[in-house]
Amino acid sequence: xxxxxxxxxxxxxxxxxxxxxxxxxxxxxxxxxxxxxxxxxxxxxxxxxxxxxxxxxxxxxxxxxxxxxxxxxxxxxxxxxxxxxxxxxxxxxxxxxxxxxxxxxxxxxxxxxxxxxxxxxxxxxxxxxxxxxxxxxxxxxxxxxxxxxxxxxxxxxxxxxxxxxxxxxxxxxxxxxxxxxxxxxxxxxxxxxxxxxxxxxxxxxxxxxxxxxxxxxxxxxxxxxxxxxxxxxxxxxxxxxxxxxxxxxxxxxxxxxxxxxxxxxxxxxxxxxxxxxxxxxxxxxxxxxxxxxxxxxxxxxxxxxxxxxxxxxxxxxxxxxxxxxxxxxxxxxx
Length: 334
Fold this sequence. Notes:
By secondary structure, this protein is of the alpha/beta class. It has 2 domains: about 1-220, Ribonuclease Z/Hydroxyacylglutathione hydrolase-like (Metallo-beta-lactamase, Chain A, 4-Layer Sandwich); about 245-330, Oxidized Rhodanese, domain 1 (3-Layer(aba) Sandwich). The chain is built from 10 helices and 15 strands. The strands form 3 sheets. The protein has a 6-stranded mixed sheet with strand order 1-2-3-4-5-6, with helices on one face. A 6-stranded mixed sheet has the order 7-8-9-10-11-12. It is globular, with a radius of gyration of 21 Å. About 45% of the residues are buried.
């Protein structure tokens, strides 16, 4: 089996390429919109053809790259059958198996974080008949579990049932690979580690210490962080109910920028460091340094949703970096 975990350090998002060298095929799980070229290059380097794309759930913190990757590779997209996505896709359900040569990915439906959440229990037939690891999506993290934002206490109860009936029944030696690590908005106490085991989490994960479903629900609902302002926009784009767009920026003169801001609606996003911004800046400009942690998420929090952004920087390469980071969180009006 060929296995690669790809980490976006800025957002904490984790995606996966799993393939079989003998079959020459691979599946990509939870692709990011800003990493499509990387998946293609990696597969080519390993002599693999990406034939399938699987989403563990409808993401609410970033834009998926599933349709962009499918357009490049002609791979099919698989979602759980409870999804409300309106773009072309195949559906899977609990117990289905995705076979890639010697590698089998068994679908475990684990609603809670979202109704369409699933995990993938992976077995390498060339190694052993027992499962090697499980891709847990946003159902279980290292040191935490997923937020029940879409369904509140009822969803938290579903998450408890999913954990008890699916993941915690696995052997302690089964490895865990989640869809997010530290830096993500999808959990509260995620570890900076990007892998663990069922046994380690069973023993040390604070969210799994609850003795009952009621205690678990109370624990999960207490002090839940606020949803990002762009939550609904990102979900809509990932379902296909809102259009995916690519920014088409052009240079603005100082006068054009001033007129756009004066007319209302547009916002100047200053990418320079805080000290330079403090020395002098456009009145009313929003300062989010391009080097700041979670740059895209920060802009999503503070910029008015849907407002056109005018980027200001003294380094041209910052523009490309900013566009990729903003596209990842659904900020396309640049």
